[in-house]
Protein: PepSY domain-containing protein
Organism: Glaciimonas soli
Amino acid sequence: MKRWLFLAHRWLGIILCLFMAMWFFSGVVMMYVGYPKLTDSERLAKLPELACATSCISLENAVNVLPTMLQSSLTAITLTSVAGEPRYQFTGIGKRVFSVDARTGALVTAISEADALRAAHAFMPRAGMQYLDAVNEDTWTHSRGLDQHRPLHRVQMNDADSTLLYISSMTGDVVRKATHTERIWNYVGAWLHWLYAFRGGVLDAAWSNVVLYLSLAGVLLSFVGTVVGLMRWRFRGSYRSGAKTPYREFFMRWHHVIGLAFAGITITWIFSGLMSMNPWRIFDSHSSPLNKAVYVNGDESDGNLSPAKFQISASQAIDALQNILRPREISWHMLNGKPYLVGVNGAGRTRIVQVDGDTFSLREEFPTSQLVEAAKKLIPNAHAAIEVVNHYDAYYYARDAHTMMGNSEKRLPIVRVKFDDPQQTWLHLDPYTGTVEGTLTRTKRVYRWLFGLLHSWDLPIMLASRPLWDMALILLSAGGFLLSATGIVVAWRRLRKKLLE
């Protein structure tokens, strides 16, 4: 048995030590430079104020030019700006986004090279630019959230950051930006950490399994290495050399010592990295997804956002909001069968336009009771416990914009509704927009601990303890890297010896 443990550790190490070193090094880079993205706050800050008080067509007229099937299945409606011009954007079945020019009423069917350049100019008006090409996917656009916008136009900006912009071929929106600094650091950061070298080519379909099984092998390597290290360590007495370790060769000795010192964090980080892949779908909920149409309509109907339900025009909403926040976007919603609009400004502040027949009123947020009344209809036979979250906690917290979870703002307070259904479902409701901010089942909460906490140390109290948080993670990562680096030397010497034989 002992011999098999030694052999398993030796050959797993020869195969995996380079990957382990890459993961530790790139993890530190990712603490400060994330995979390129365009956050909500960046996008809103670049939009102009909506200015179509007299020139915009009505929502009803815009809907009438959409494909017939979409007209009866609208789940999201937004008035925004594309290349500086107002556009209605509609989402329905299949999540594809359709755009209608809010001035001419024309359905946008294709985004040309010239359209992409206009969008890039509106986004960065002071920079020169060069159109590159249209790609379905490249190194900086592997995110599944971009699928509805593919193919993507690429425009190289001549600004100080050498920013690369990606423009949706469906809507004309700028959907991603990647600065030169982000691109360079990502080659030793997220691109390396997530093994994106396996994405986009013939191995693309196998990428998730490659990461999963390499991580699983890494967990096995770390565990077996810890067992072997403990077996070889003299806790009582010492070897003839006077040391606790039997190894006299420099790299073997330090691999043994560092391995025992950093065994716990190595196993923890590789295991939590494995959990990030949701191996064998263990964190999937096995129940039917919640019917969000019930939350919207208050009943089992289809939840279609029909223009007939909104007796207020976009122009009226803009006028009403103008003196409060000068909206950059307006979106149409329903809560428990009651229509309303939400305006948002360049700083992300919102106001609700509550519609009551042909009259309307402004409010900053919905009362908790109104949100809870709608939420309870999602799981009608379950008891619901209500909690107003005024401070970040383990299940609702903000991350820096460059991190994986930092794409959108996490505002406070939010309303948490805890159901006692079989999945122990929690809902997070945003009182400032009336929407469901997030859903957490029991398995998703387990995932939060096994991946989020163990991998990123992202409890709010930890994130607030900087630079101690930085120092601790860098020190532990350095230990893991040195463990892997000494393993690389030992593995290379062993492999070279075998090859020469």
Observations:
- The first strand starts at residue 76 and ends at 82.
- Residues 205 and 332 are 38 Å apart (CA to CA).
- Residues 370-440 form one domain.
